[in-house]
Design goal:
2 domains, two-stranded antiparallel sheet, alpha+beta, globular
């Protein structure tokens, strides 16, 4: 298979080798292509003549020239507790491609087998959850919400034990970056200030190039402001469509503001402000109505990781952008859903009264707004 159709890079390997481990995928047996996202492939800058050509790559049985699989190392706060043992436990970053329009895409194979960070896991993915991620990430993209996406997935004959025996599968997840808040936590807690700065400049050069020519102090401050604002707007988007993430740990927070990691997730049905979609979240830390606060908490974890290279007061100012960015974007989203063509001081009150009504009467969240959109403006 030729790779002449797109530019190939692997800029993640420019980071110190403590940020990754080279690991070869462990091939699946009897792999079959389940689906291929032709629209996404076109967006990424290449045309697929025979989608079956990608089956062996998805199965971990073949690599294209330029692919150099690595498991990324990061840490993070899981349910509020710092865990130093994290990293890609079942996925491998294969390479990066650059589309003709200059957009960068990481290719990350989920379900590729064990890595040094698998802990007690088997490194595999199952068809059930792989389908869920494929569908939801494309749905979120269709809703205009920043997200990782799925290029293709394969199923295989290998049995995988979860609560019962399930069918093995793998997913080629693509995103403009797979770097998470947890990468910065790893750098500061285990590698030191030089590694933090190296990672920071790497992220800026690849994903925030408009900041490159600013003086260092201003560059870092502006970057953190933008990360905080991207995160706030992402959570506002989630709240507006009734999306519940379920595992808002800092290692699942994208540095560019994408929806990242479709583990336990749900969309609200009958409205319950305190809805918990993850049955392991006994205390409701990541309940629907707590997601805005958890987004800010994760920004605080990121900010703490930056203390070795940024002034505390600068960090505080950057964090202060979260609340205003969230409130502004949430209000904008909800006014659109309510069909308000002009802004008014009472808009926020109307929005909150609507949420209270939905909660009190357990109204289906999506059906309510869908029904509202069908009302005649002159009725």
């Amino acid at each position: 298979m030729s790779t002449n159709a797109f530019k190939v890079e692997h800029r993640y390997l420019e980071l110190p080798d403590s940020f990754y481990s080279r690991v070869m995928p462990k091939p699946l047996t009897g792999a079959q292509l389940v689906c291929y996202n032709h629209a996404l492939a076109k967006e990424m800058g290449f045309h697929v003549r025979n989608e079956e050509d990608w089956t062996n790559i998805g199965a971990g049985a073949e690599l294209l020239e330029g692919m150099d699989p690595v498991a990324m190392k990061y840490t993070g706060h899981q349910f509020g507790v710092y865990n130093p043992e994290l990293g890609d436990g079942r996925g491998l970053l294969l390479w990066e491609t650059v589309a003709p329009d200059g957009t960068r895409w990481d290719w990350h194979l989920k379900g590729a087998g064990t890595t040094p960070y698998s802990r007690f896991g088997d490194g595999r993915a199952v068809l059930r959850s792989t389908i869920r991620e494929y569908l939801c990430s494309e749905a979120m993209h269709g809703l205009g919400i920043p997200t990782t996406r799925a290029l293709f997935m394969v199923s295989a004959k290998d049995p995988v034990r979860r609560e019962s025996i399930e069918t093995a599968a793998s997913l080629m997840r693509v995103a403009q970056s797979h770097i998470r808040f947890g990468h910065f936590e790893f750098a500061t807690h285990h590698e030191g200030p030089d590694a933090v700065k190296t990672l920071l400049e790497h992220v800026i050069s690849l994903h925030f190039p408009h900041l490159i020519n600013l003086p260092e102090e201003q560059r870092h401050a502006r970057w953190l402001e933008e990360v905080v604002e991207h995160t706030a707007r992402l959570i506002a988007d989630w709240q507006a469509v009734g999306f519940c993430h379920g595992v808002m740990n800092s290692d699942n927070m994208s540095i560019i503001g994408d929806t990242f990691d479709y583990g336990p997730y749900a969309f609200l049905d009958d409205f319950d402000a305190g809805y918990i979609c993850n049955h392991t979240d006994q205390g409701g830390r990541y309940a629907y109505n707590r997601q805005p606060q958890m987004g800010f908490t994760n920004c605080q974890y990121l900010a703490s990781a930056l203390l070795p290279v940024m002034e505390e007061e600068t960090i505080r100012r950057s964090l202060s952008h979260y609340e205003s960015a969230y409130n502004e974007h949430f209000k904008h989203n909800m006014c659109g859903k309510l069909g308000l063509e002009e802004t008014d001081e009472g808009d926020l009150g109307l929005i909150m009264e609507t949420f209270s009504m939905l909660h009190e009467h357990k109204v289906d969240y999506t059906h309510f707004f869908r029904g509202l959109s069908n009302l005649s403006r002159h009725g």
